Amino acid sequence: MKDQKNNDITFCTSKRAFIAAAIVMLTMSGCRVNKGMSNHKQPPNILFIAIDDLRPQLGCYGDQTVQSPNIDKLAGAGVLFNRAYCQQAVCSPSRTSLMTGKRPNTTRVWDLKTHFRNTIPDVITLPQYFKNNGYHTQCIGKIYHDPASAQDAPSWSAPEILAVTNREGKYVLPANLQKKGSKAAATEEADVADDAYIDGQVADQALEVLRKVKDKPFFLAVGFRRPHLPFSAPKKYWDMYDREKIPLPGQRTPASNIPAYAVHKNEELRGYSDIGFNNVITDAKQRELLHGYYAAISYTDAQIGKVLAELDRLNLTNNTIIVLWSDHGFHLGEKGLWTKTTNYELDTRVPLIIAAPRKERGVKTDALVELVDLYPTLAELGGLPVPEGLEGTSLAPLLTRPGQPWKSAAFSQFPRPWQYKGEPETMGYAIRTDRYRYVEWRNVKTGEVKATELYDHQADPGEVNNIANISANDALTSALKQQLQDGWQKARPARQSRH
Hints:
Layout: H1 2-28, E1 45-51, H2 69-76, E2 79-85, H3 91-100, H4 104-107, H5 116-119, H6 126-132, E3 136-141, H7 167-170, H8 174-177, E4 187-190, H9 198-213, E5 218-224, E6 231-234, H10 235-238, H11 267-270, H12 283-313, E7 320-326, E8 331-332, E9 338-339, H13 345-348, E10 349-350, E11 352-355, E12 363-370, H14 374-381, E13 410-416, E14 426-432, E15 436-443, E16 449-456, H15 474-487
Helix pairs in contact: 9-12
């Protein structure tokens, strides 16, 4: 019995030692099981939320009309960037720039057809970089441009979900589904469930994927298509607004002393069946369009709320970096312009919110930032080396000191003619400083400056008075011209803005 007792003691002691050793090994290995804040050594997850055609018209940006409670709540949990800018105000070039960390002149993507793998084939995209560093990366919805030909399999660990949509994702009413051509009505209101439209389906799929990947580091990109045209949303979101109380834009004509190619003829909107290329957009139709845009925002906001709620339910929020961005801004009749594709403030300024663990919460920054900055930002926040050759600047310091001096300017560009063949004739290059927007229109082949625009946002926030050709502003124009040339691909934080 004595020998048996000694054997039992030896067995128990060995078992305890084995368990203790196993615990130590698990701790030292930096186990990657997701337990919120319980294991700080685990890499943070990334929830990357993209929205199409959303300008900063949200409650958290001070808007009194739009109802966006879920995005507003997210802003309260992170840092809201008041002055964030895209690099080209149209879908594919903007998203390509963000996802590669390079500006459009480097990607050579200025249109909707060119794929960056044909111009910079060896580039490592933002999600691809995380995939190469042990993350599960997955795309649900629109992250790159919509067509199948615009997708990028090397970016993802698994096939894209709902990255391509068709008419059935945009419309549900038979009258619109049966229309000939690629576009039906510009708006649609239907008494249907959220998942009748594509963004409700995207949200549902995001919930499913979150439940599957919750136990490993993930980069989950979730892309919503509304409020892109057509402004389609379930009836309950239209019911949130009184159309007769929606204000029309005040200034509905562009500046008179600008080149014709600085603006456009609203071709994107006029392609819809109820607008037409030869019709005047009446006040009643404008209110309908505005109503539809707001309803589409609230619909998308609700889908985002579902994803954020599931992230929280799964106890993932405290170890997840959440980034919410739009690919560009949008005109809603201001200066007579609808949609995007210009170098102006309303088209280039975008909403941007970053909520990261152990960073500032519920604060705003007026620092000038750009979407091209997101690649180095997420690399740094994820604890990864920032790759060489990126053309943006990490915003990580602003998440702890939002008021510190930052970039002196943000840069954007747009070609003319739009929908060019071969290469554009003219490229407009814009610089946005603390106070001014300066635009140069250059001949693409010769570099010759064909026209200039200058707007003083202190006196003219609507950019309707081009003051570039006033002799009293020659010194200012010359300084901005030099700043544009010097800083195009080298925009970096500065102690203070020059202008």
